Amino acid sequence: MSDAGAPPVQARGLVKQYDDVTAVAGVDLTVERGDVYGYLGPNGAGKTTVLRMLLGLIRPTSGEARLFGRDPLVEGARALDGVAGFVEAPRFYPYLSGRKNLEMLAALDGHGAAGRIDAALDIVEMADRQKHRVGGYSHGMRQRLGVAAALLRDPKLLLLDEPATGLDPAGMRDMRALVARLSSEGTTVLLSSHLMPEVEELCNRVAIVRTGRIVYEGDITSLRARAGSHWRLRTTEDERARRVVEAQRGITAVAHDPDTPSAPGALRFEGEEAAVGELSIALVEAGLGLLELTPVRATLEDVFFTLTEDGAAVPPSSPADSDAVAA
Ligand SMILES: Nc1ncnc2c1ncn2[C@@H]1O[C@H](COP(=O)(O)OP(=O)(O)OP(=O)(O)O)[C@@H](O)[C@H]1O
């Protein structure tokens, strides 16, 4: 049953097992109204599989998904009221024009979709190419036509699987502008991506996934705060500098700085600004010349790689249910 206040997307304990491959290993996910939610992970992390389960295209091995409170496996097409998007690349008849493809989709969809074709083509800036055969479209134009097809449903929720992947820089910029525009007009968006800069630019919330499991979920601002920072120091005398740094109150995690190969004696450490200020005085008082003392802030890209690369601390995968229904 639909619930007027239910979030656009809610998943609890989603698991998808393919023989010995756990594609999705227990995903909890809530997308609230107005979110642009990034489902971010490297290739093979299970992004497409999650989107397929959310749309009811495949059956989870265990767990459940709701769209506006409706279960796509129980309510079928009705659960997809107000929901649109594409999983992997959108597909069209290549020998028909973009417009003809949209007309066919609109005829299947009903609900006034035919009346929205012109507006949808305008929004994705494809009006001038609508009469051309899709077979001659660039990848970016096909992606935009995919979004136009989704807009025919007048969606309150858009699910987009890697919408900018494979696009050239201009195509990426156009796609990002399009998503930002749809969001500003009130559409909730869930998009998958393997590109942190894209998610950082577009999304207010993010789930970072690795081998089917969420390793971070929350808003981008908190993720940025978590990125942390350290300091880099170069002086005229490496060994003595290290002793002064290690003796300084408030300074921790002192180590050689591997990011400065041209200066093998460079140090890195952590500390509040006040302690670093005192350290700089102590260094000068010890007769050391300061060549560099720089705060180094980790980027979100760094955090993404730390969370998703092999060896990152992730709880072990739980065995998936055995009563799988093959999709
Ligand atoms: N139908 C299937 N049968 C067997 N294994 C599958 C199937 N679909 C996906 N997998 C496996 O599940 C894992 C997750 O795949 P999925 O396509 O969801 O990842 P993804 O994050 O979307 O990656 P990509 O960005 O490369 O598409 C992969 O190891 C994949 O090989």
TrEMBL record:
SUPFAM superfamilies: P-loop containing nucleoside triphosphate hydrolases (SSF52540). Coiled coil: none annotated. The keyword Nucleotidyltransferase does not apply. It holds the Pfam family ABC_tran. One of its GO terms (molecular function) is ATP binding. It comes from the Bacteria. Residues 9-236 form the ABC transporter domain. The keyword NAD does not apply. Keywords: ATP-binding, Nucleotide-binding, Transport. Belongs to the ABC transporter superfamily. This is ABC transporter ATP-binding protein. It comes from Paraconexibacter antarcticus. The lineage of its organism: Bacteria, Bacillati, Actinomycetota, Thermoleophilia, Solirubrobacterales.
